[in-house]
Amino acid sequence: MCLNNKLSEGDKINLSDLIGTLDKTPSALIKTKKQLKNLQHNQSTLETPLTRKETEKIQREVAFEKTSKEVSRWQSVVLQNQKAEQLVFPLNQEPSGPKRIEHVVAGWKAQTPLEQEIFSLLRMNKQPLHDPVLTPTEEASLRAMSLEEAKIRRAELQKTRVLQSYYEAKAKRGKKIKSKKYHRVQKKVMRKEYLKQFDEMVKTDPAAALEELKKMELSRMKERMSLKHQNSGKWAKSKAIMAKYDDGARKAMQKQLEVNKDLTQKLVIPADEDEEDEEESAETLPDFVNDVEPILDQVNPWMRGKLSTEPMMEESNRLDPPVWPREVGKPGEGQDEQEEDEEQMEETEEESLLRGFEERRKLRQTEDKAEILEISDYDEEAVEISDDDEEAGLSNFTSLFHGLVNHMEPPADQPKAGPGLRQGESPALLEEGLVRVRTLEDVELLSQDISTSDTALLTTQILGTEETDTQSATQQADKKRKKMIDPNEVLTKEAKVIEMPLAPTAVEDVEDKEEQRVIIKEAFAGDDVVSDFLKDKRKQEEAGRPKVIDLTLPGWGEWGGLGLQPSRSKRKRFRVKVAPPPPRQDQKLPNIIIAEKRDSSIAAHQVCQLPFPFEKPIQFERTIRSPVGRTWNTQNAVQKITAPKVVTQLGAIIEPIAREDLIKDNRQAVTGPSINLESDQGPQKKRRSQQKKQHKRKKN
Amino acid sequence: QHLPALTALSPFPEFPYFIHIHAMKVKVLSRNPDDYVRETKLDIQRVPRNYDPSLHPFEVPREYTRALNATKLERVFAKPFLASLDGHRDGVNCMAKHPKSLSTMLSGSCDGEVVWNLTKRECVRTLQAHEGFVRGMVVRFCGTSFFTVGDDKTIKQWKMETPGYGEEEEPLNTILGKSVFTSIDHHQKEGVFVTCGQQVDIWDEQRSSPIRSFSWGVDSFSCVRFNPVETELLASCASDRSIVLYDMREATPLKKVIMNMRSNTLCWNPMEAYNFTCSNEDYNLYTYDMRYLDKPFTVHMDHVSAVLDVDYSPTGKEFVSASFDKTIRIFPKDSGHSREVYHTKRMQHVISIKWSSDNKYILSASDEMNIRLWKANAAEKLGLLAPREKAAVNYSQKLKEKFQHHPQIRRISHHRHLPKSIYSQTKELRVMKEARRRKERNVRKHSKPGSMPVVTEKEKHVVTVVK
């Protein structure tokens, strides 16, 4: 200290002077002397302190980190409130109804001797005084572990105990067995198992294996140091005397030596060599080994389909197993193929025909148009030539493809789609206009006006309902046409068709520009999209054709009853033939299906785009279909369904959420299971969702 | 189904057995009177119901019609304007809510200030607080006194109670500052308040000099607000187009974000500690998460002129904004567009706006010396509702929500009348925006791919975040 003072006071004093004086003083200050000397030697200067700007920046950053962390504690509360089915404001309302005397009267004391006695007793036994719910020990135990956890834990413990006892018993039994052979065999088995384990360990956990190896090395070292198996012990010496005469003794000695040899043998680690070998072999192997292996998955038609698309282009440079044309069949599948029924055969014939067309087409190589549509064009011919019988229920892909085609189809429709899209984009946007709505008539007019103007604007919509309608209609038509065939059978047949690898549909020259087409092709590689499309179209046409209306009523002018048919003449008379409808719009457009089901007058009232939170039309339809009102639901259900999201109390001031809420929430989160016990005491949170949960728990 | 068998058994086929005889016990059809008798004659008649869906067909069309009617009625009953409080002799510049009383409200005009009683719609007390503008006012959290700042560089504290007969109207406390104060806000629980002007000052009520001052290269602030939840946090809008965050406990500001244009005011969400919304000169409002200032998480568009003020509803679900375009708009807190727009013929530029703390009303103060009282939900029926009424309201609300995506209902519920000037301006803005977008798209199309990255609407408005 004094040194420092001196230094700071006078700048004429040199450090060396001081050290000089220190030399004269006794040895007590050697340490400081050393330090000072070090100081003298040390030439490096201190860093200049940061500028004010920079320090402030650092301070700011640190402070921001701190506060943002602090604020982030609210995240869970905020999320919870956002998700809550119902929020009741003000948040912290006192529960209505009578309160306990302890809550209302603060300074209540036991006064009469009897009361005092009772309370002292209670206190002695650590019983709860105010809210007779839980003793401290009970609470502690609850906090420590929930009931379920405890049960699970107990079960686990029981199991381990039982296992342990089993094991002990087994070991005891094994130990009692006197047979040497048994033990020898046992040991051998153990060793084998150990070896196996070790091998596995080498593969799975090399570190542990290394440990094991080290252990082995250690045992070897020990063996080498000791004389245990070197026939130098007492027993060995006695045996050595006997060895001349006794064959067994000789063998025993031999064995000892062998053991020694085994144990002292140096371990060879073969792993490196193997690796090298592998590397070499890898080098020698041809490149295609590293390519992605073609998946010949029998189950997954998609993968197979994809395979079938590729070979035409890549057959030459790849060594993939050749794709067997359909008729030939794969060698493995040959038998299966033969077993297929007649229908299947027809199918194949048709397929081959199709392919023939395809090939011819390939030869011709017309210019690019809308490619898929082209294919369909050709295939239409093919299908027309081929048998009609194979018409079956729609596969899923057809409808998908249908949708896709519709998407691609109408360039004329695109401007129409514009406003509809814009509508969908901004659901919250107000439609502001110059019309002021005052009465119901105004509103009526408004809607009418819009509907008339809207009809022209609305996009072609394929609502789920409509689609299902058409589908069901087509299916019905199908049933009529072929009553003999069960639709399920037909469907299975269809699936089989998909299984076969088909070359023809995919034979196209690939260009980079037409990525979309390629993607579609890949996606629908396995199934015969084109003929499906055609079938679909024909079905639509069928459905659109007018049906003969039969108005015959039994019993008029003749006998009627069970098993009696109206006479033919009568039936003829009352059959009404409907005039054919105007020709279909897509009559001359072979590649397009124009849905004529769409009714523009209804479409103006239908939702044309899937609203935001929904992912599938079905979900949306379901919400619309389930009624809300009292006519269809019970009183309680209606109350529950129609409960408003935010409830405010009339004339109550809503305070901002307070820190206590956060703490309370956290505590509730921590002491999850004990909520149901505590819920009936103290001020309650009025969150409906939470209350519901609690009720559920109580029920449980 | 048993009927034919019974008739076959009975000697008189015209009179099938309805009474079953079993072991000499006569079973007669009987009903429990509890099921059909009312307890009092004031009760509603009990109607037994059969919920078999086949008996109640066409549920979707029926509910659709109900929903349509409900939306129409909602539009018909949408009469949000309640009252106009007139009496100021100059434009009303600021307002303050009373934290303990719903019916009391304070307003400061460009020449003095007034305390209002809302239920009676009358002025309770007038006092000349400052010379020149009253820039800001705030009621202390306990509701017993309030603070005002004005153009005369003073902060004054006043008693909430009206002075008795013969007493003079004098402030409890007056602090003379060095520069003009533009805004004031009070801490939620402690005797601390904050003012801003050339810098952000934090004051203790007991002292005459600020306990802390923050400045960060800016010389003029327009608004400062305490966070109502994390009560030590502050945010301010500055004239260099920035929003600055502070922590009262720290020596330095926390962070600031600089935007394309100046923010006028901001308001913290009272239910979400880290969210705040600022009203900007570029006609938009921006909601920020204070932890991620690099872009707002919602941009609220719809105004056609600078937004001057914003206030959150006490439930934190919505906020209301006042604009220079003479309208008030209500936005859901996470929606980009407004759900409601209020305007009247005589309302001029709306300068200040407040959402009442019972979530029912909105107060707007405007240039033409009036304060207007609006309903927060335009079609809501005020006052107590009978339980059946309440149920009906809930039901129709649910129906509207259920069918909200149907075009007809959507059109009706979203239709709003707008003054011609605003309507045409909106259209114009839309055209401009579309043109800008088209141009950008074209430029991108004709430039090297990747050289014109797509900038989202949210990112467009933030210049930098300064640490």
Automatic annotation (TrEMBL), chain A:
<feature type="region of interest" description="Disordered">
    <location>
        <begin position="665"/>
        <end position="700"/>
    </location>
</feature>
<keyword id="KW-0539">Nucleus</keyword>
<dbReference type="InterPro" id="IPR006709">
    <property type="entry name" value="SSU_processome_Utp14"/>
</dbReference>
<feature type="region of interest" description="Disordered">
    <location>
        <begin position="308"/>
        <end position="371"/>
    </location>
</feature>
<dbReference type="GO" id="GO:0032040">
    <property type="term" value="C:small-subunit processome"/>
</dbReference>
<dbReference type="GO" id="GO:0006364">
    <property type="term" value="P:rRNA processing"/>
</dbReference>
<dbReference type="Pfam" id="PF04615">
    <property type="entry name" value="Utp14"/>
</dbReference>
<comment type="similarity">
    <text>Belongs to the UTP14 family.</text>
</comment>
<feature type="compositionally biased region" description="Basic residues">
    <location>
        <begin position="684"/>
        <end position="700"/>
    </location>
</feature>
<feature type="compositionally biased region" description="Basic and acidic residues">
    <location>
        <begin position="352"/>
        <end position="371"/>
    </location>
</feature>
<protein>
    <submittedName>
        <fullName>UTP14A small subunit processome component</fullName>
    </submittedName>
</protein>
<feature type="compositionally biased region" description="Acidic residues">
    <location>
        <begin position="334"/>
        <end position="351"/>
    </location>
</feature>
<feature type="compositionally biased region" description="Polar residues">
    <location>
        <begin position="668"/>
        <end position="682"/>
    </location>
</feature>
<feature type="region of interest" description="Disordered">
    <location>
        <begin position="406"/>
        <end position="428"/>
    </location>
</feature>
<keyword id="KW-0597">Phosphoprotein</keyword>
TrEMBL record, chain B:
<keyword id="KW-0687">Ribonucleoprotein</keyword>
<protein>
    <recommendedName>
        <fullName>DDB1- and CUL4-associated factor 13</fullName>
    </recommendedName>
</protein>
<keyword id="KW-0833">Ubl conjugation pathway</keyword>
<feature type="domain" description="Sof1-like protein">
    <location>
        <begin position="376"/>
        <end position="462"/>
    </location>
</feature>
<comment type="pathway">
    <text>Protein modification; protein ubiquitination.</text>
</comment>
<keyword id="KW-0690">Ribosome biogenesis</keyword>
<dbReference type="InterPro" id="IPR051733">
    <property type="entry name" value="WD_repeat_DCAF13/WDSOF1"/>
</dbReference>
<keyword id="KW-0539">Nucleus</keyword>
<keyword id="KW-0853">WD repeat</keyword>
<dbReference type="GO" id="GO:0032040">
    <property type="term" value="C:small-subunit processome"/>
</dbReference>
<keyword id="KW-0698">rRNA processing</keyword>
<feature type="repeat" description="WD">
    <location>
        <begin position="343"/>
        <end position="384"/>
    </location>
</feature>
<dbReference type="InterPro" id="IPR015943">
    <property type="entry name" value="WD40/YVTN_repeat-like_dom_sf"/>
</dbReference>
<dbReference type="InterPro" id="IPR036322">
    <property type="entry name" value="WD40_repeat_dom_sf"/>
</dbReference>
<dbReference type="GO" id="GO:0080008">
    <property type="term" value="C:Cul4-RING E3 ubiquitin ligase complex"/>
</dbReference>
<dbReference type="InterPro" id="IPR001680">
    <property type="entry name" value="WD40_rpt"/>
</dbReference>
<dbReference type="Pfam" id="PF04158">
    <property type="entry name" value="Sof1"/>
</dbReference>
<keyword id="KW-0677">Repeat</keyword>
<dbReference type="GO" id="GO:0007292">
    <property type="term" value="P:female gamete generation"/>
</dbReference>
<dbReference type="GO" id="GO:0000462">
    <property type="term" value="P:maturation of SSU-rRNA from tricistronic rRNA transcript (SSU-rRNA, 5.8S rRNA, LSU-rRNA)"/>
</dbReference>
<dbReference type="InterPro" id="IPR007287">
    <property type="entry name" value="Sof1"/>
</dbReference>
<dbReference type="GO" id="GO:1990756">
    <property type="term" value="F:ubiquitin-like ligase-substrate adaptor activity"/>
</dbReference>
